[in-house]
């Protein structure tokens, strides 16, 4: 189970970093080892939801509840997926079921409140369709005279029958006046700018007590400060030897002040003597801690050690000391440098891990497991092989075959795309892409992939048979509307289109007024999106 725990932690880190595909991969591998782990299904559900794959998120959430029906998180995951899919009533029922299992779960309570608010908002009636519309307008002095205008009555009937046009009519002052009467509001008062609330007084900044005046200092400290000023002047002029002499004199006068030792370290840093620089920084830190020096000075010395290692390209120790500095005092410059060192270190470790010979061994182990039908094991070996040799297109092709067998078609497609990028002339990249798309019942795209394979090798039996199967399936398919929607919503491009509020408004307008289609098709961007929805079967033009 250590492997499962490690994969879960790896998946959690990837999810937090926004690397959704990597998170899904880790959770999937972990589930292959521990298929009854409800937390893994819950985490993968969250990853799918973050990716926009709400159908898969729903499936994993249902499996979470099946394994552990008394765990409130499973119901939260399921309700969230249902809400994204627009199934608000089902989401409400799910929240209620979860609260029966865990009545004190705050997340479920808040979720139920939010969904009830959305349902109430959705069910609000069109104010222009109320049965006593004209009586209400007649009884109010603001609209009584307007009723004598035929164009106003025509406007009311138009909004009664086509409420979706309200947004285009709000510039008409008569509409705003009518709404204020029907909704019982005084919109003119609401539009007046409220007097801005004065901001709260800023909190006083943390300030250090002012340093004592020079004349109040003991003689030894006054002499030390004088030497420091002379040293700083020489340092700015790049006269490092003179600067060192003055800083050494300052230390002799005041050995309890870490700043003078730290300044010596800065000189050796500029001279490129990093060992001596670090030695003095460590000494300065010891002196500072003994004399309760300001934590910012300690942080500065630690950062200088980190910078010395960075200069020598020893990024491991650089990161170590940058983090120590950030623990004492967090500054943007040190944080940025630390992140830069971490990125370089990660890339170095990745490059150092590459070993084509070991990659071949893992590939052979993966092939053996695949032949035996142990696809999760084969996937793990191929993943290790990819880490060892990330430029081998065939490894991505092999792992794509595993993902297809495990019904993880989006991950399979991603590996096929990587395979094709690395080696555009490798035919299996296209045939396996076609197979994944065919399994997803996206026959038009699958046919494109098989056709590309045939362009590379016109005698490919796998591509020919795949193309023929897709042509037959496309011609004879008789999917239910639910199946069409489920398949379409698994496409990230469709998810993006359907989550766009502007596109949803356009589709709603087209449904109520088919003549609006011709106007929208004049916009090439909208036309392209509408064509995509037609291709996947979500909408039909009659």
Can you offer a commentary on this structure?
74% of the residues lie in helices and 0% in strands. The protein is mostly helical. Helix 5 (72-84) runs parallel beside helix 7 (106-122). The longest helix has 22 residues, at 332-353. The two termini are 57 Å apart. The relative contact order is 0.04. Mean pLDDT is 84; it is low at 187-198.
Low confidence ranges: 187-198
Report the β-strand fraction as a percent range.
Answer: under 5%
DSSP summary: helix tally: 32
**Alpha carbon gap, first and last residue:** 57 Å
Q: Mean pLDDT across all residues, rounded?
A: 84
Q: Classify the helix fraction into a percent range.
A: over 70%
Structural category: mainly alpha
User: What's the total number of strands?
Assistant: 0
Largest sheet: none
Shape: extended
Task: Please give the radius of gyration in angstroms.
Answer: 34 Å
Give a summary of the structure in a few sentences:
The protein is mainly alpha-helical. It has 32 helices and no strands. The two termini are about 55 Å apart.
Q: How would you summarize the topology of this molecule?
A:
Elements: H1 2-16, H2 20-33, H3 38-51, H4 54-67, H5 72-84, H6 88-101, H7 106-122, H8 133-138, H9 141-144, H10 150-161, H11 166-169, H12 173-182, H13 187-191, H14 219-236, H15 240-253, H16 258-271, H17 274-290, H18 295-311, H19 315-328, H20 332-353, H21 356-371, H22 375-388, H23 393-405, H24 409-422, H25 427-439, H26 443-456, H27 461-476, H28 481-488, H29 492-498, H30 501-512, H31 516-520, H32 524-535
Helix pairs in contact: 1-2, 2-3, 3-4, 3-5, 4-5, 5-6, 5-7, 6-7, 14-15, 15-16, 16-17, 16-18, 17-18, 18-19, 19-20, 21-22, 22-23, 23-24, 23-25, 24-25, 25-26, 25-27, 26-27
């Amino acid at each position: 189970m250590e492997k499962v725990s490690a994969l879960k932690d790896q998946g959690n880190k990837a999810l937090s970093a926004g690397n959704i595909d990597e998170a899904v991969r880790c959770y999937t591998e972990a589930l292959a080892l521990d298929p009854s782990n409800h937390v893994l299904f819950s985490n993968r559900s969250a990853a799918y939801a973050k990716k926009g794959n709400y159908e898969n998120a729903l499936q994993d959430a249902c499996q979470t509840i099946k394994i552990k029906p008394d765990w409130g998180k499973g119901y939260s995951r399921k309700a969230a997926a249902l809400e994204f899919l627009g199934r608000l009533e089902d989401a409400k029922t799910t929240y209620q079921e979860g609260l029966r299992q865990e009545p004190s779960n705050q997340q479920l309570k808040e979720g139920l409140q939010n969904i009830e608010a959305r349902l109430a908002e959705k069910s609000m009636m069109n104010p222009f369709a109320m049965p006593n519309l004209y009586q209400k307008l007649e009884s109010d002095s603001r609209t009584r005279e307007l009723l004598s205008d035929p164009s106003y009555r025509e406007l009311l009937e138009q909004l009664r029958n086509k409420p979706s046009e309200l947004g285009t009519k709000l510039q008409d002052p008569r509409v705003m006046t009518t709404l204020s009467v029907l909704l019982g509001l005084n919109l003119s008062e609401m539009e007046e700018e409220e007097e801005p609330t004065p901001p709260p007084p800023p909190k006083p900044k943390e300030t250090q007590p002012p340093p004592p005046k020079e004349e109040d200092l003991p003689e030894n400290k006054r002499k030390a400060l004088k030497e420091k000023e002379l040293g700083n002047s020489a340092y700015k002029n790049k006269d490092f030897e003179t600067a060192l002499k003055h800083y050494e004199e300052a230390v002799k006068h005041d050995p309890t002040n870490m700043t003078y030792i730290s300044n010596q370290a800065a000189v050796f840093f500029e001279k490129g003597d990093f060992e001596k620089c670090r030695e003095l920084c460590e000494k300065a830190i010891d002196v500072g801690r003994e004399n309760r020096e300001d934590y910012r000075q300690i942080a500065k010395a630690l950062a200088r050690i980190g910078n010395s290692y960075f200069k020598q390209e020893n990024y491991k120790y650089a990161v170590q000391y940058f983090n120590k500095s950030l623990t004492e005092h967090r500054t943007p410059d040190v944080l940025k440098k630390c992140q830069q060192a971490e990125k370089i270190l990660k890339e170095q470790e990745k490059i150092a891990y590459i070993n084509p010979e070991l990659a071949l061994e893992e590939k052979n182990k993966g092939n053996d497991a695949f032949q035996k039908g142990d696809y999760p094991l084969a996937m793990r070996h191929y993943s290790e092989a990819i880490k060892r040799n990330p430029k081998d297109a065939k490894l991505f092709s092999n792992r794509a075959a595993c993902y297809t067998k495990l019904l993880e078609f989006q991950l399979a497609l991603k590996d096929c795309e990587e395979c094709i990028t690395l080696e555009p002339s490798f035919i299996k990249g296209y045939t396996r892409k076609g197979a994944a798309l065919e399994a997803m019942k996206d026959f038009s795209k699958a046919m494109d992939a098989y056709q590309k394979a045939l362009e590379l090798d016109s005698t490919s039996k796998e591509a020919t048979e795949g193309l023929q199967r897709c042509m037959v399936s496309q011609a004879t398919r008789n999917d239910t509307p639910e199946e069409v929607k489920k398949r379409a919503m698994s496409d990230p491009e469709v998810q993006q289109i359907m989550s766009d509020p502007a596109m949803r408004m356009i589709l709603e307008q087209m449904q109520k007024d088919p003549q609006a289609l011709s106007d929208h098709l004049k916009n090439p961007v909208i036309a392209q999106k509408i064509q995509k929805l037609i291709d996947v079967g979500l909408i039909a033009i009659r």
